[in-house]
Amino acid sequence: MLLEQTTSHTVKELPPLKSTDSADAKVTWTLVLLVLLLIATMLLSMGIGAVPIGVSEIGSLILHSLGWTSATEVTEAKAMVFWVIRLPRVVLAVLVGAGLGIAGAALQGLFRNPVADAGLIGVTSGASLFAILIMMLNAQYWSMINEYGGAYVLSLGAFVGAALTTFLVYQLSKLAGDGSAAMILLIGIAINALVGSITGLMTYLANEQQLRSMTFWSLGSLGGANWTSVIAIAPFVLASTVGLPMLGKSLNLLVLGESQAKALGVNIIGLRRMVIVLATLGVGASVAVAGSIGFVGLVVPHIIRNIIGPDHRNLLIGSALGGALVLAIADTISRTIVAPAELPIGIVTALLGSPFFMYILWKQKTKRI
Question: Which residue ranges does UniProt annotate as crossing the membrane (predicted)?
Fold first, then answer.
């Protein structure tokens, strides 16, 4: 109902963003190219590793599982590696990347700030705090939860932490002011500082084994990917990737300013709440299973915006595809570049993202001169 109110109240808005046929064609071809690159990257990632699997073998395995072929010449070992290790990891990378990419684009549009991301509203810091809290308390204090939750206690705790921190930021922004985007950012910065200090204190008190687990989790990894983790986050990421593009028209009008958008029929409070909730769903679930992965939600929307323009109806979809593509590439690099060891994926995204982000800022500055 709230989603309908947010989008359906824009009855007397300005005409949609004008675009030429060539611009529309550019957007379409860009999205098609992103899909094709994503498929190619997934095939490459599923084939590379200690046990190489060819594209024809991947096709044979998939066709056989669908019942379209009666037999396959792929060895049982390769089939096991493909179904149990490679495929769930690639699918998880796509889901996490899509959730981070589309959330970053939506939050940048909501706050009208090109450097906004989920970290500004407490999603990442809250998830990290609760994950470290569970690591510190250990299973002996969580015997009942550990008995029923098993290996998923950490993921559940991280997701709850992300949701609670974001909810706290939003409620405090309404108590301290009018709940505007600027107030949410200010409260978010304060809460992030508070949560960061608590996390630092807990890190200081941790023993060597706990500190090692905390460090590895905070750098991000898809090493523990399996079908259970894929199924666990899929509903949250799909809700985010389906729901946020429906708010694209309202986010376009918000570019004019909150007062102008409100005069044109946009439900500002409802829009703000829906964007934050949907972004938290995607990012919180992603951080819960993969740890803290930076720069995807920050850099990918910039790249897509420079290619297809600022129309959020296209930008959000493109950011989801771009985020999935970037994280699939980063994960392939992280597990192969130092094989048989594995490099945390957060290091790879930072090495790839930070120079590119600095280049974008430099380019924008030169345009203004």
Answer: 27-55, 90-111, 117-137, 149-170, 182-206, 227-247, 274-303, 315-337, 343-362
